Amino acid sequence: MTDAPHSTRAQRFRDIVVPAAVRAGYTGHGAKARFAKETGMTESSVGRMWQGRAIPDSRFFQRIADVTGLYLGTLLVEAGLLSQEALQSLSESDRSQVGSALTPQEAADRLGITDDVGREVFFRTVDRLKRLEDDDPEQGNNHGGATAQM
Q1: 33: which of 2, 42, 85, 94 lies 20 to 30 Å off by Cα?
Q2: pTM of the predicted model, to two decimals?
Q3: Rounded to 10 degrees, what is the CA torsion of 30, 34, 36, 37?
């Protein structure tokens, strides 16, 4: 089913999240319930995601990234909220500008994030990263694992 060339976006999202969840220890009886509890999702939403039938609401992406160790940018791309080109642009060339006088709104514009939901996710991610940095400025990027690299 997932090997088909025309797999759905939800199936591709599942194909990234579920193996990462398994690697993170979400296996066996109660794995989906524990995943739901630790991400704030409902068990039925987790079930639909693990079956490749639905992509969760973007407000859960940060927690999914946290518990699976996935890069938040990967989830945004797989969900269709951010293009691969925009993610690569941020990762490679615009990273130095994000810390300068560039506002999150300007960064979103430059990255081509026009979808209201995608912009909101982007802004919240930037805010969260700022809060992590403010919590312990001496630690820098050591907070948040891979998600802090975005």
Answers
A1: 2
A2: 0.59
A3: 140
